[in-house]
Amino acid sequence: MNEASPQRSPNDVARTVADVLHGEKAKLVASLPDNWIAPMIRHFDSDSRFRHVAVNREEAAVGLCSGAFFTGSPGVALMGASGFLTCIYAITKISYTYQIPMLFLITERGAPGDAARYHVSNGLYLRSVIDAINMPAIYIERFEDLHKIGVAYRHASVIGRPYVVALGRNLLKGVA
């Protein structure tokens, strides 16, 4: 018999993600708002271990993370799925061309369980777009799997390319 996962808050998820990234020596987090990741954005903004930069365009996160790489530490871009989808050209032109690793922490908006009708299109083609540009990705649904973020961050540097970690709704809400 499986025991139910203990209830965790979105702040527990944010703290754990920050601890994993700190363990990997990540220093820069660039973010765009999304209500699923609002607690994580607030955490990074107040966590002195990181330089958090709120950006107004998704492409700015790609530029900041690229610059962070040239200072010795790949950056982390934190955004919703729709934000990620809007910066595909910047990713393929800048990151792929110059072999710049960065980690994209994104929401898995539009997946089953997301009641926001206007995000359905994300669920229809997010994974297909990621696959189409041959970007490595993992999809995390359970709190116990958050350590995989560190694996993805390290692997991005090994392969010299961006890596996507998509975080599910129930995880971000603290119920998985």
Write up what this structure looks like.
The protein is of the alpha/beta class. It has a single domain, classed as Rossmann fold (3-Layer(aba) Sandwich), CATH 3.40.50.970. 46% of the residues lie in helices and 15% in strands. It is built from eight helices and six strands; from the N terminus they run αβαβαβααβαβαβα. The chain has helices at 10-23, 38-46, 58-70, 81-86, 88-96, 120-132, 148-159, 169-173; strands at 28-31, 51-54, 76-79, 103-107, 137-140, 163-167. A six-stranded parallel beta sheet has the order 2-1-3-4-6-5, sandwiched between helices. Strand 5 (137-140), helix 7 (148-159) and strand 6 (163-167) form a beta-alpha-beta unit. Helix 3 (58-70) runs parallel beside helix 5. The model has no long low-confidence stretch (mean pLDDT 92).
Topology record:
Layout: H1 10-23, E1 28-31, H2 38-46, E2 51-54, H3 58-70, E3 76-79, H4 81-86, H5 88-96, E4 103-107, H6 120-132, E5 137-140, H7 148-159, E6 163-167, H8 169-173
Parallel strand pairs: 1-2, 1-3, 3-4, 4-6, 5-6
Helix pairs in contact: 1-2, 3-5
| DSSP helix fraction | 40-55%
Domain tally: 1
Radius of gyration: 15 Å
Write the H/E string, N to C. Answer: HEHEHEHHEHEHEH
Main beta-sheet strand count, sense and barrel state: 6 strands, parallel
What is the CATH top level name?
Alpha Beta
Counting H and I runs of at least 4 residues, what is the number of helices? 8
Kindly report the name of the CATH homologous superfamily: Thiamin diphosphate (ThDP)-binding fold, Pyr/PP domains
The poorly predicted ranges are none
